[in-house]
Amino acid sequence: MDFESYDVLIVGGGLAGIRAAIAAVEANPRVKVGMVSKVYPMRSHTVSAEGGAAAALRPEDSYENHAFDTIKGSDYLADQDVVEAFVREAPAEIIQMEHWGCPWTRDPDGKISARPFGGMTTWRTCFAADKTGFYMLHTVFQTSLKYEQIKRHDEAFVTKLLVEDSRCVGVVALDIRTGRFDAITAKSVILATGGLGRVYAFTTNGNICTGDGMALAYRAGVGLKDMEMVQFHPTGLPFTGILITEAVRGEGGYLLNNEGERFLKRYVPNKMELGPRDIISRAMVTEFEEGRGFDGPHGKYMHLDVRHLGEKAIDRKLPFMRELGREFMGIDIVKDPIPVRPVQHYMMGGVDADISGETEILGLYAAGECANVGLNGGNRLGSNSLSECLVFGAAAGRAAAQYAASAKLVTANPVDAMLWDEAHRVETAYLEKKGGDERIGAIREEMQREMDAGAGVFRTKEGLEKLIQQLGGLRERFERVKIEDSSKTFNTEIVAALELDYMLEVSQAIAVSALAREESRGAHARRDFPERNDEKYLKHTVAYRKEGARPRLEYRDVKITNFQPKARTY
Amino acid sequence: MPDKKVTIHATRYDPDKDEKPRLQAYEVPFYDESMVVLDALNWIKSNADGSLSYRWSCRMGICGSCGMMVNGTPKLTCNAFVRDYYPRPILVEPLNNFPVIRDLVIDMDDFMHKLKAIQPWIIRKQEMPLGAGEHRQTNEQIDDFRQFSQCINCMLCYAACPVYGLNDEFLGPAATALARRYNLDSRDQGLKQRLPVLADPEGVWECSFVGECSVVCPKGVDPAKAIQQTKLDTTMRFVLPYGNRE
Q1: Residue span of the structural domain in which B54 resides
Q2: Residues 6 or more apart whose Cβ sits within 8 Å of residue A428
């Protein structure tokens, strides 16, 4: 059988994936790069990022300050060597994006401007109004079109990594348009599939954020690192979960409770609205529990107030927020406070990868939100993730291109067999199965409700035990799933089933990792263990999949270089 | 509120089975005042008919994937509110002027080729080294091209364009707006390279200035203006062969 072959194959077409593709080609112009994405690349969820991308570009800033802010923000769970490399490379990546056409908002002298952001001690968040992710994604995607070496497979869904002799040699992908299963072989594979927010009911994440790359790697035997570390952003719109950027607070917005009080003075008195996301989200939930939230049709909320900034500043720096308020809430943020509540936003955990994106499997790399290279630890600082996609996307692209130069392509023989097995597995599990009686939507919605309840802002032993039980029950129900769509052509129900399969997988890793970490650190807040315990848990959790059982957990030391753990107060 | 229902008539078409598209009616609970047409489709897919196919992701009007015809008008279904149609039934069809792959899913390969054809990247005679830092550009210079940079590739403008409906060789609104976005960028020197595509008989001159593209754009882009300005560029090329900005 014929199949496409590449030197470097990238799964995912968001900021990290496209940056990796360009880096691979620029490292070696003879490299043939393939990019498989389940959506057209410009639909990738990078597009929804708003606030900005951090880099120590300004003369008054320093690498040390950016590194320290990131490490403190991570509650000391970040690997400090990784952070130090990141802060050094971020500025050049921001400049590179500028050369490619990103319309960064400028200072009066024409240089790239910066705004304050949560947990950052100085102005280092570069931004393009309040649509930074949109501009960055379209810039890097449009730029990628000039490289003839990059060939795209749009709207193809990867169902399996091909692993032969402990080496990743490609993927099996379902071509959504035709329903055909293809083997796509490669000397190296980079996972850049983004986050998993859709395992929660209330999330800022788009429908496509279903943890695909994490589940693919996990099933191939790679560990998932720090999966208990799930970020809840303080300011999502009730009902839709649409993100209201932290830049609203960066530009001077106030967060107010139902007494009109800037309640953060009791939690982060020195940083107020610019405290880190984990602490502010907990503060909001605490205020709700103590009766100081507003009550609305979609639950409790706070006010985010920018009225004092004035129309001119709002239109210059936060035009998209005004548009979102008008279109989705029927309010004008120039005149009305914005209702907000904490919402799942980002996954610090992910595929266990090193500073170059290398995983435990030879030839397999990971970058961006789906990876955990050790940058974000227990809590990511806002605006570090767009920069992370650039820095570690590029690093993985270069490393994969270099590895590919000395690796051999797999031969057709084993690939044919693996393709047949995988196509057969999916067809018998979904398309040809008779007698299923469970709706995908019903299982998915229950999973989302249980994850909100059990693995939310605050966790307990009882809640997590119950969640693990419920997820087990949902896994059993999933075995009886009913697929109504028998078409080969653009069968989105099959895709939804495969995504739900992945989501159940990564949800279990989150719940089991969270149950085992009996301390509170970063975004992982245990009511039954409210203190941080460095003696026992200054370690990464690494979860390994076990068929039909809870994952096996290992712990690995955090890399400390220059910053000894201290109490984390703001 | 829980008792209110809205009727959705959605286009169904499976090329494996159907000779031509047909409509299917669904009764959907109008469960929240904030509900959008996309929520109704998602309710159908989760609760009534898993085989209904459509694209969507961000549901905040920025990814550009959920464009469909809603009661005959191209719309992002994530910000088409059910309350604006209720109690009338809502007709949801695939975007006009595109081949239909399945149900509400259009084939947009044509646009992807056109996007590449206009060379949507910064073109310079000499690349500046990274070490030299950024190009200086003021916010006022960004204002020159800002609106054209807002395109989310949602295809609503092509669905509204009568010329594209008759002739799919026409470069069309979004691709021209994006070419304009680069041509107006103070960092770019690629106007001359892009002109052959824009000045082609199927380029901007096909436009009959109906202006519907600008009306339906959900992001405030004015492709009609981009096309008119580009007509001027292509004329200037003949009048002043070296007259473009370089």
Answers
A1: 5-106
A2: none
Min Cα distance B71 → chain A (Å) is 19
Fold for A234-342, please state it.
Flavocytochrome C3; Chain A, domain 1 (3.90.700)
Per-residue pLDDT of A423-441, as tens digits, reads 999 999 998 877 889 999 9
Looking at the structure of chain B, the number of domains it has is 2
Prediction ipTM score? 0.96
- Do B136 and A111 make contact, defined as CB atoms within 8 angstroms? yes
Whether residue B65 lies within 8 A of chain A, CB to CB, comes out as: yes
Nearest CA distance, A58 vs chain B (angstrom): 12
**Residue whose C-alpha is closest to residue A28's, from A5, A8, A13:** A8
Amino acid A413: pLDDT? 82
Q: Is B115 in contact with A142 (Cβ distance < 8 A)? A: yes
pLDDT tens figures, A292-336: 999 999 999 999 999 999 999 999 999 999 999 999 999 999 999
Are B93 and B145 in the same domain? Answer: no
Q: Which fold has domain A4-230+346-413?
A: FAD/NAD(P)-binding domain (3.50.50)
> CA dist B18 to A396, A485, A493, B13, B51, Å?
45, 14, 19, 6, 14
**CATH code reported for the domain at A421-530:** 1.20.58.100
Is the pTM above the cut of 0.95? yes
Statement to judge: residues B114 and B234 lie in one domain: yes
* A106 to B185: CB separation less than 8 angstroms, yes or no: no
Q: Are residues B124 and B227 in the same domain?
A: yes
Output b/e per residue, A92-114; b: 16+ Cβ within 10 A. bbbbbbbbbbbbbbbeeebbbbb
Q: Which tokens go with A117?
A: 């952001």
A-chain CB neighbours of B102 within 8 Å are: 487, 489-490
Is B62's CB within 8 Å of A134's CB?
Answer: yes
Average pLDDT, chain B: 94
Distance from CA of B22 to the nearest CA of A (A): 16
- Whichever domain contains B101, its CATH number is 3.10.20.30
